[in-house]
């Protein structure tokens, strides 16, 4: 090979080697560092600690709230710290529990206030400590929580009034059994029921007596109504304990089914009373959804997302006629055990 051509070939080979090495390395520009893979939440992400503080821990309603909260917590890699007073009237006890969670520096608090005004300073204390607070079922006044997840209690109580008035033929005396004075939920149900009665001029509210969320006191309240107004046509009990107390009173007086009873909530005992004709209608909430949505909103708040101020979990009127409807059963039994 002539020297001139040989030198030309060597130059081409050298250039090819250099070009090939450059093409394989493809260095990134200095100002753009390589991106690390996203860690898997299940193995490396911080596990959140979310306190869920109900008004009580005894009734089926709150146990269903817990089931919803636990399910949402599992899906969000969050530990649910469930703690609440045994009595819904224990405002001081609930305050102490929430303050303990504040001191523990939990990531968020989901709570149902035993007293709307009494719990407001405690909620403010948590918010000042940069702990997001979501209220469920029963909020605080004024509402300073990030989000309130609950039934539209006024609308639900209006539906209770319409249902009861229809059951008694749009005329006669009725009684009202709210639960705890000062609890926002109780206040709204009382207000909604009374306001709707204005649209039924031949129905007269003769007694309003509180159950204090205690079955025996609910029974006493119903007995007082039956004694003072033996011709009373119907009663609205605004929660489970009031309903079961009223049901017992109606049975003991021998007027179950004759005096119509409409109640909030849907415990197994209430469902049984609906089946045997002691209760004629239940205004049913979705406590499972309250628990799950409360936790989901809390997780979103922790992550810095914008969340709605109000989440309505809905209300449904359940009677003996529609009890076995699949949609009704799904609300009554979110875990799949038919009632």
- For CATH, the homologous superfamily of the largest domain is named as Response regulator
| CATH class membership of the largest domain | Alpha Beta
CATH-defined fold name of the largest domain: Rossmann fold
Number of helices: 11
Spatial gap, N to C terminus: 98 Å
Residues in helices, as a percent range: 40-55%
The description of the largest β-sheet is: 6 strands, parallel
Shape: elongated
Estimate nothing, just give the exact number of structural domains: 2
Total E-strand runs: 12
Q: What is this structure, in a nutshell?
A:
This protein is α/β, with parallel strands linked by helices and about 350 residues long. It has helices spanning about 5-25, 60-75, 90-105, 120-130, 155-165, 185-195, 215-230, 240-250, 270-275, 285-300, 325-330, and strands at about 50-55, 80, 110, 135, 145-150, 170-175, 205-210, 235, 260-265, 280-285, 310, 315-320. About 45% of the residues lie in helices and about 15% in strands.
């Amino acid at each position: 090979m002539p020297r001139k051509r040989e030198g030309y070939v060597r130059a081409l080979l050298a250039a090819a080697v250099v070009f090939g090495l450059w093409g394989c390395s493809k260095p990134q520009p200095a100002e753009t560092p390589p991106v690390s893979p996203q860690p898997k939440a299940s193995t490396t992400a911080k596990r959140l600690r979310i306190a869920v503080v109900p008004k009580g821990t005894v009734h089926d309603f709150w146990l269903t709230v817990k089931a919803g909260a636990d399910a949402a917590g599992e899906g969000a890699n969050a530990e649910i710290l469930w703690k609440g007073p045994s009595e819904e009237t224990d405002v001081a006890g609930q305050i102490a529990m929430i303050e303990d969670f504040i001191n523990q520096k939990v990531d968020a608090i989901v709570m149902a206030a035993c007293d709307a005004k009494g719990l407001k300073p405690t909620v403010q204390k948590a918010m000042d400590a940069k702990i997001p607070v979501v209220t469920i079922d029963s909020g605080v006044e004024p509402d300073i929580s990030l989000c309130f997840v609950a039934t539209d209690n006024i609308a639900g109580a209006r539906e209770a009034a319409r249902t009861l008035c229809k059951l008694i033929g749009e005329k006669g005396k009725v009684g009202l059994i709210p639960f705890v004075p000062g609890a926002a939920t109780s206040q709204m149900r009382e207000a909604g029921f009374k306001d709707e009665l204005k649209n039924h001029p031949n129905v007269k509210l003769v007694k309003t007596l509180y159950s204090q969320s205690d079955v025996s006191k609910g029974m006493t309240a119903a007995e007082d109504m039956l004694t003072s107004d033996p011709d009373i046509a119907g009663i609205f009990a605004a929660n489970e304990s009031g309903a079961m107390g009223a049901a017992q009173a109606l049975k003991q007086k021998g007027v179950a089914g004759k005096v119509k009873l409409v109640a909030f909530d849907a415990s197994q005992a209430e469902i049984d009373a609906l089946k045997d004709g002691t209760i004629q209608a239940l205004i049913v909430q979705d406590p499972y959804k309250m628990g799950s949505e409360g936790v989901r909103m809390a997780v979103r708040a922790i992550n810095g997302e914008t969340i709605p101020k109000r989440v309505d979990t809905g209300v449904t009127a359940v009677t003996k006629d529609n009890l076995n409807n699949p949609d009704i059963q799904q609300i009554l039994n979110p875990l799949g055990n038919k009632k």
